[in-house]
Amino acid sequence: MAATLSPVQTSSSIAADGIRSSTPAMRRIRASRGLVPVDFRELLDYRSLLYLFMWRDIKTRYRQTFLSGFWALFRPLSTMVLFSVIFGGIAGIKSGTDIPYPLFVFPGVIVWGYFTSAVMGSCLSLGANGGLLSKAYFPRLYAPIASVTAPLTDLVLSMIVLFGLFAWYQRSPSWHIVFLPIAVLFGLLIALGIGLWITGLAVKYRDIGFAIPFLVQIWMYATPVIYPVSAVPERYRWLLALNPMSAVIEGSRWALLGYPFPSAQLTATALGTALVLVGAGVYIFRRSERTVVDLM
Fold first, then answer.
1. What pLDDT is stored for residue 235 in this prediction?
2. Which residues contact 203 (CB under 8 A, 6 or more apart)?
3. Residues 6+ apart with CB under 8 A from 38
């Protein structure tokens, strides 16, 4: 059974000859019960391990691949071309402004690509680290946290293609680009929250690993990635407001293209959902980590 660690204080005694002796400090493993709070002191002490996890995930992302990091450029570029031909060309979807459709759709493609990788990684993070979990103790929260930060490298590399599109269409990024990390942070928190809810269940029920890509793909079409919010009839826009990723995608377009800022309803939904998912997810994660090693 997984357990929490509680320190046992160093005890001292005075020997008969007056020399003070002490026993070494120990860590006692005890079964946890009820609500287990996050030990932020422990997270801080193990922070170097988080850096190692992140660096490991980054290095192994394209290990033993012929094209290596080129995949971070090719995948969003090919997706953008496909969407532009099918949705921008055949279906006739427009950006709603004077922004060319390929340039309009690309910010949504790269941010959604990051979100997909982050959700997949965080939901399967405990299972992916099963060998390490069964051999050594470390703060389990670091597994999903590292999984949502590693895909940021792909997002950064894909910006090369985006700036190439700006040059092709003879446009320049909006000065709002300095706020892009905030939109990405919202997406990171949403992905992390989902992962904290699901990763414990994914160890017990392996079907989740098959269902997640399918559900995330459906979620994309319910998010304004390939179409603007203005293309949705007014009576159905409340459904977009229930989707926290709508504000993330629209916020990314605002930051990169100078697109209209997301409505207050979209922004409040994204912020509230991110906080609820992470807050409740930590509680659920702490409960599931008690038995996760026994299930591996």
1. 85
2. 126, 127, 130, 292, 295, 296
3. 141, 282, 286
Measured between alpha carbons, how far is residue 236 from residues 17, 158, 231, 268 in Å?
Answer: 84, 32, 10, 18
CB atoms within 10 A of CB 29: 12
The helix/strand/coil state of 95 is: coil
CA pair distance 102, 17, nearest whole angstrom:
83
| Beta-strand relationship, 4-8 and 26-30 | antiparallel
Q: CA-based angle 36:188:158, to the nearest 5?
A: 155
| DSSP code, position 177 | G
pLDDT at residue 36, rounded to an integer: 64
**Largest Cα span, the chain:** 93
Select from 188, 186, 269 the least CA-distant residue to 229: 269
Cβ-Cβ contacts under 8 Å for 147 (sequence gap 6 or more): 57, 118, 121, 122, 124, 125, 128, 195
Q: CA 230, CA 208: separation in Å to the nearest integer?
A: 34
Size (the chain), residues = 296
7 vs 4: CA distance, rounded Å: 10
Q: What is the pTM of this model?
A: 0.81
Q: Which of 12-16, 153-157, 248-252 has the lowest mean pLDDT?
A: 12-16
Residue 6 has a pLDDT of 43
Q: pLDDT band at residue 191, thresholds of 50, 70 and 90?
A: very high
Rounded Cα gap, residues 51 and 147, in angstroms: 12
